[in-house]
Amino acid sequence: DTAVSQTPKYLVTQMGNDKSIKCEQNLGHDTMYWYKQDSKKFLKIMFSYNNKELIINETVPNRFSPKSPDKAHLNLHINSLELGDSAVYFCASSQESSGGHTIYFGEGSWLTVV
Amino acid sequence: DQQVKQNSPSLSVQEGRISILNCDYTNSMFDYFLWYKKYPAEGPTFLISISSIKDKNEDGRFTVFLNKSAKHLSLHIVPSQPGDSAVYFCAARDGLNYGGSQGNLIFGKGTKLSVKP
Predict the structure, then answer these.
(1) Domains of chain A (ranges plus CATH)?
(2) Which residues of A touch B98 (CB under 8 A)?
């Protein structure tokens, strides 16, 4: 069973469109994240979210919004897609309440904006 | 401004020899350091970590060394195997809980390790 799963794995879409990437974790973790790996291969956090708090990296445009229907899901919505949004997006989760520091990643979603 | 730096984009090692991957950091508030391994088309997978209060952590063939005074850590893989060929990311956690979440990690750019048979 995949611990952190995200769909779709590949997405090609046109500029200006709105798209979503879904993420689910079956680890029972209380915190989920979205990371972005850009063309320069930097892996940077975009959001972290638990049941109580959404923390947003201030560099993330407000066209990006996470939505969490429940503890096991954190979906990423992107409005008005731009060419520069092309990247690999990784969902991740961790168990914050145990004081853990290890986060578990999904396989990534390759977004190409044309 | 990179807080975590992996200055070697690639490393090639012969099977059976030692692989040493290096990482430097600038933020003295980091309290945990982690190494992640990534195969193509897959997400990073956790490999090994070390607390800032320790200087060495060993797990099988993998050992991480931390030199706080030099703000430097390294990952040693002995003996190296062809299956170890992957991109290795060094990551650090801000002990001040960036934004309140302990799981926010700051990653280096990665080092691509190639282990040749």
Answers:
(1) 4-107 (2.60.40.10)
(2) 55
Q: How far apart are CA B104 and CA A92, in angstroms?
A: 10
Backbone angles phi, psi at A44, to 5 degrees: -130, 145
Contact B89/A at CB under 8 A? yes
For chain B, how many structural domains are there in total? 1
What CA–CA distance (Å, rounded) separates B34 from B6? 13
pLDDT tens sequence across A13-43: 999 999 999 999 999 988 899 999 988 788 9
Chain B residue with CA closest to A41: the answer is: B109
Task: Fill in the DSSP letter of residue B7.
Answer: -
Q: Is A107 close to B34, i.e. CB distance below 8 A? A: no
Whether the CA torsion A58, A60, A61, A62 is positive or negative: it is negative
Q: Which residues of B touch A50 (CB under 8 A)?
A: 101
B107/A42 touch (CB, cutoff 8 Å), yes or no? yes
Rg (CA), chain B: 14
The 10s digit of each residue's pLDDT in B72-107 is 999 999 999 999 999 999 999 876 655 555 567 889
Can you give the residue range of the structural domain that contains B41? 4-116
Distance CA A67, CA B80 (A): 42
Is B43's CB within 8 Å of A108's CB?
A: yes
**B44: nearest CB among A96, A99, A105:** A105
